[in-house]
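Weekly puzzle thread! Below is a chain. First person to post its structure in token form gets bragging rights.
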Amino acid sequence: MWRAALTPFMLFAALLGAGFQSQVKAQESVDVALVLAIDVSRSMSQEELELQRRGYAAAIASPEVIRAIELGARGRIALMMFEWANDNHLRVIVDWTLIDEASDAQAFSDQVLEDRSFSQRRTSISGAIIHAAELLEEVPFQADRHVIDISGDGPNNHGRAVTIARDAALEKGITINGLPLMTTGGPGSQFNIPDLDVYYRKCVTGGPASFVIPVTDWAQFPDAVRRKLILEIGGLEPEKPLVQRVQFTFEEPYDCMIGEKIWDQLREQFFLDP
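Winning reply:
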């Protein structure tokens, strides 16, 4: 009788304890919550998409990145990855994962390589930023910093203006870093621009310690990703020359709608879909 009376209480206590443990785990602190947003727009070939996946997988599991995580104040980070193209194509590759040792990073890397990416129409950097910001609002860890890491090979040409999405993310205290892929050879190169690195600096990135690392050759990609992850994990900026020439110049405003304008011109010329 006594044992039977205790059973509901014991069950309630067990459930309460499990809920408390889940809440504690959810509130675990990390040095940074980092979203990796990778471009799968149609301007990238299937080979380039595979190079991109392999490059990220190799960088995440690299000893240098593991070391950077270990050197953090808490020695752990929260990491997730999704792919993006047009404003409606957003696919999670690996959901939020706590990484505090090499085995966690290797497991994340293995998941990145489990399936393949397939290119999709249009390029919506703004959609990627908006989605990444929403993911950071739901991150199940307490993070000292929130960072969006965007790689892409062309300017925004779909969805909201990229500056609107960027500014909204910056107001939330999010840092946005960029990895502009200034490579040639993929399909749809007519939608790209030669100064994509400048476009990313002027129109896409921002926030504390934000930076842009351009890639001009796919052979550079794994090293560039590894370097970028190390900087993001440590909250650092790329090294700059100790001595810089001071010039008083007034830069002309950069046209952050260049991608949309290129699309409109080509649409009128080739009768493309809106």
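Puzzle host: Confirmed. Bonus trivia for everyone else. The mean pLDDT is 86.
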